[in-house]
Amino acid sequence: MEIDKAIRESDDRWLKTKYNKAIYVIQRALALYSIEEVAFSFNGGKDSTVLLHLLRAGYFLHKGGQNCANGGPSDFPIRTIYFESSSAFPEINSFTYDAAANYGLQMDIISTDFKSGLEALLKANPIRAIFLGVRIGDPTAVGQEQFSPSSVGWPPFMRVNPILDWSYRDVWAFLLACKVQYCSLYDQGYTSIGSIHDTVPNALLSVSNSLSSEEKFRPAYLLSDGRLERAGRVNKFSSGSGHSPSFSNGLISADLHKNSLLTASAIAVGDEILLGIVEDQLGPLLCKKLHSIGWSMSQTVVVRNDVDSVAEEVERKSSTNDLVFIYGGIGPLHSDLTLAGVAKAFGVRLAPDEEFEEYLRSVIGDYCPSDRNEMALLPEGITELLHHEKLAVPLIKCKNIIVLTATNLMELETQWDCLIELTRSSDILAVMEPYVSRLLKTDLSDVATAKPLSKLCLEFPDLHIKATCDKKI
Ligand SMILES: Cc1cc2nc3c(=O)[nH]c(=O)nc-3n(C[C@H](O)[C@H](O)[C@H](O)COP(=O)(O)O)c2cc1C
Ligand SMILES: Nc1ncnc2c1ncn2[C@@H]1O[C@H](COP(=O)(O)OP(=O)(O)OP(=O)(O)O)[C@@H](O)[C@H]1O
Ligand SMILES: [Mg+2]
User: Fold this and answer.
1) Is residue 405 within 8 Å of residue 393, measured between CB atoms?
2) Per-residue DSSP letters for 113-166?
3) CA atoms within 13 A on the CB side of 144
4) Which pathway does UniProt place it in (predicted)?
5) pTM of the complete model
6) What atom in ligand 2 is closest to the CA of residue 110?
7) Cα pseudo-dihedral 172, 173, 178, 184, rounded to 10
């Protein structure tokens, strides 16, 4: 079936593992319970949309690949329950009903609260297990496992949570890899959807535009830190006026919003680093530079100098970061494959760029190790050259990837300064308020400092305390 095929053909190994584990849970549940004894709790949210497709694939595989029309199961006999509410977003309602029609779901629409609705449903039907799209990190996931009996006081049934261990990233990697439809609200900056009374777009996805008074938001899949997916949930207990919502996640304050808006990653390409022959010095300097302009650095990684390793990492990082810096593996050697990896990540070919070739000629003359100057091949259609008078060769920008040609700290300093200057005339790298860092040293043990530090964190939610083995920052 098409979902199973899409995942098998994807080169996201992490997603494949998560998919296989979820399918395993579904298949074990279908082996344990008859089809009349299971139900699927579907509400049109992103997690339950993932589960819908996993269940369809799991059921199809459970049936041994039979019962298929046009590459998918022709029927989906698992009873689907939707707790309808007048405070649900109309977009959620219409997506749920559209999905029901598109996938032939047999819907039970329940208009009472969860508990009494389930009591009535279980009285009238032999249901013993219910599939839910609950994930670790959801407030309701606490204490749950893949198979968890319902709580005391609830009617007796098994809660089956096939995507319990999926992260926010996994959810979006799945929905995008399978190219399935999801509720339109997620393209408008909503990252987790409750009711119309408690959910707003996630401020971390806001795009400020001075020309328009209307606030715009980037799509949910661009949220780089999945821990903040519930930042768009308005605190039910807030006593505010409603004009400046406070958020249910205590970690978020207005100041933190400002500073964690933009996230970058750095990819160092080089077998020599992985072999331990050379140390990566550029990554730490980039972290310092980005930190100094208020950006949050989510990761620095080192990858092998081969096209697939580079492509995989670029694809992963570009979808979860605002900007990605990549260096190493750029040059005339046959082993310099970084640009080929960037091209592959975006599904374009490497094509000769005359303008770039001209620059290279001015630097290296007519010397060329092969017929064509391979260094002048750039990812086609997605490349922008960033010119600066201090740079003999322009920097290369492919979508949100900045390719740095620097090979040492001095060159990186120069390229960074040029980027910052270029930012004044374009929007490559927004310069924000810097983070303020303080280094505190103490002889006290971790055990002695743990309690006062936790207290500080609670009192000042936008304070980040990081401890290292011999110092506390
Ligand atoms: C099918 C189904 C089964 C549930 N089972 C339980 C349960 O066993 N114990 C429980 O405390 N809550 C149960 N709940 C309620 C949820 O944990 C949670 O309160 C509900 O999804 C509302 O979440 P929200 O406040 O984020 O909208 C169940 C909900 C559904 C839809
Ligand atoms: N109104 C509802 N009707 C049926 N099932 C529901 C309802 N609300 C929640 N559920 C079940 O609980 C699960 C967890 O809900 P939750 O809101 O965390 O996820 P979601 O709605 O799928 O995605 P999102 O986090 O983006 O809102 C859902 O995936 C679904 O299985
Ligand atoms: Mg939801």
Assistant:
1) yes
2) -HHHHHHHHHHHS---EEE----BTBGGGTT--SEEEPPTTSPS-EEE-TTTT-
3) 26
4) Cofactor biosynthesis; FAD biosynthesis; FAD from FMN: step 1/1
5) 0.59
6) 3
7) 20
- Out of 114, 159, 249, mutate this one to test ligand 1's pocket (max ligand atoms within 8 Å of CB): namely 114
CA geometry: angle at 304 spanning 300 and 310, to 5°?
Answer: 70
Q: CA-CA distance, 229 to 191, in Å (whole number)?
A: 5
CA dist., res. 244 & res. 247, Å (int): 10
Q: Where are the extended beta strands (E) located within 288-430? A: 296-303, 323-327, 350-352, 377-379, 383-386, 395-398, 401-404
**Cα dihedral sign, 17-191-314-299:** negative
Domains and CATH numbers, the chain: 1-169 (3.40.50.620), 183-228 (no CATH), 263-425 (3.40.980.10), 437-467 (no CATH)
pLDDT in tens, 250-301: 222 333 334 446 899 999 999 999 999 999 999 999 999 998 888 889 999 9
Residue 83 alpha carbon, nearest atom of ligand 1: 31
Sorted by sequence, the CB contacts under 8 Å of residue 279 that are 6+ apart come out as 273
- Per the rule left: phi > 0, alpha: psi between -120 and 50, beta: everything else, 331 is left
